[in-house]
């Protein structure tokens, strides 16, 4: 999901930069786009491979959701511990460290296939991405501002959002393509990504300039503060529940689609699983691009109805064991997820003062990743006793209730205080 609303440091005035410096920053911008895409795609690479791990180790479906939840916990830890340190350590230094963590995670995936190692590898993957998202978003904005000082700054935000969500969508699709017909499905995609991650590390090191001036003493480290000003807590709580509900939809689709397609539908195609998840996350990205400039109230209304219809179709597709309906439900719900989450982040940025914006946004992302972790684990536990169609129907109904309650409340609050939008 996009993290494009994290505050970024202002670019230096145009007079300070030569033509050569601006050209180097323009090149660095696109190099970072490529590296950012590789990093984000790695996070969803295992999605179509979970049934293979399940066959290899013989663990129940609930373990798949625990492995997935380990990633969510890692992201929350990364956001809390390192999401802000690039402001004084430097963007490139943090990105290099996070990329190195992702390489370690990929090596673990290649060498170790036991359940404990998978949990650790996924946690490390999330830890690195928690540091990457805000840092890369800020770095893109600063590189673009220096490289093209007369251009619209919104371009960098649009690119960052597209790369963030687009990378997530590419991971399962590429993994499906690499493993559907080629040998060694639990090794090949990670081996390919080790090469890509090492290339990304080298490109960041050699071709992407630093944009943070590190003069002066380094401040004492502290974790990211999470805080919401009392006057805007009603707006924040409504937006946070909406964000958590939206992310829970993504979480269930990315963690359980392979089990549903293979177990309930009897279709053991990793490419099909990857394509289904690609459709969900891709629709989330596309809806933000197509409708991202619309009024906040319009985005929220369209997102609410798209998620509602999509969740209804999830229940129908699961209960009827219909692949076309299940696929359609993912695309429709995914489009709604993108808009609802976009509004939640926009609201968090709008209701916070400049000095507390980072803390408020950190709280919003922590709420979102709690949504991608807790409901997914609960669904996995429920699968121990109930059939997948029953679990998906109950999940759809529960999340639908949360979506309607939170978005309706948020719409009323924004209507009363339109300046907060």
TrEMBL record:
Major subcellular location class: membrane
GO MF assignments: transmembrane transporter activity
Major facilitator superfamily (MFS) profile domain segment(s): 27-414
Subcellular location: Cell membrane
Residue ranges, compositional bias (Low complexity): 1-13
Membrane topology: Multi-pass membrane protein
SUPFAM superfamilies hit by this protein: MFS general substrate transporter
Example of a GO cellular component annotation carried by this entry: plasma membrane
Region (Disordered): 1-20
Residue ranges of the TM segments: 29-50, 62-82, 94-113, 119-143, 155-178, 190-208, 239-265, 271-290, 302-320, 326-349, 361-379, 385-404
Record key words, sorted: Cell membrane, Membrane, Transmembrane, Transmembrane helix, Transport
Protein name per its UniProtKB record: Putative MFS family arabinose efflux permease
